What does this fold into?
Amino acid sequence: MDDAKYMAGFFDGEGCIGIYANGQGKGHTLSVQIVQNKSTAVTEFLQKLKYVFGGSLSLSTSANGNEKYNLQITGESARVFLSQIRDHLRFKKEQADLAVAWHATRPKLKRDAKGRLTAHPPEQRKFDKKVARLIKALKKQDIDQVMANQTDLVEVVHQLKQVLCVKGN
It folds into this structure.
């Protein structure tokens, strides 16, 4: 799918980014979701996204009787999707950056001798929950306020100051 600008604009308006505990509580998963009322154009667009990025596309009926689609893309596919549209996002850029960075640095789940997934260590699960809270907060607050509220997740290495440069006579 070539039109990253269109995908980003559509996602900025109709999309959602989250980090959620998986069903067994052994780890967390990156998820992006797009919910949109059913129409011919939307059907084609969401089916193309599903074909390119994977995920699941379901149709349901809202409380007012309208049919709506729900596209969910998770894990590495969600990271790829966000990476492709990131430069064109306007409203969800900070959320996308945080989600992609978190996904890139997290350890993979391992399997025990019987082939069952083992849980991440408690400190990793605690960190994952903090990052999930941070992404959720970014949906409602400006980045500066969110970062001020999350000092346990951030270490200020450099502080930049604005400089004014005037050219001319």
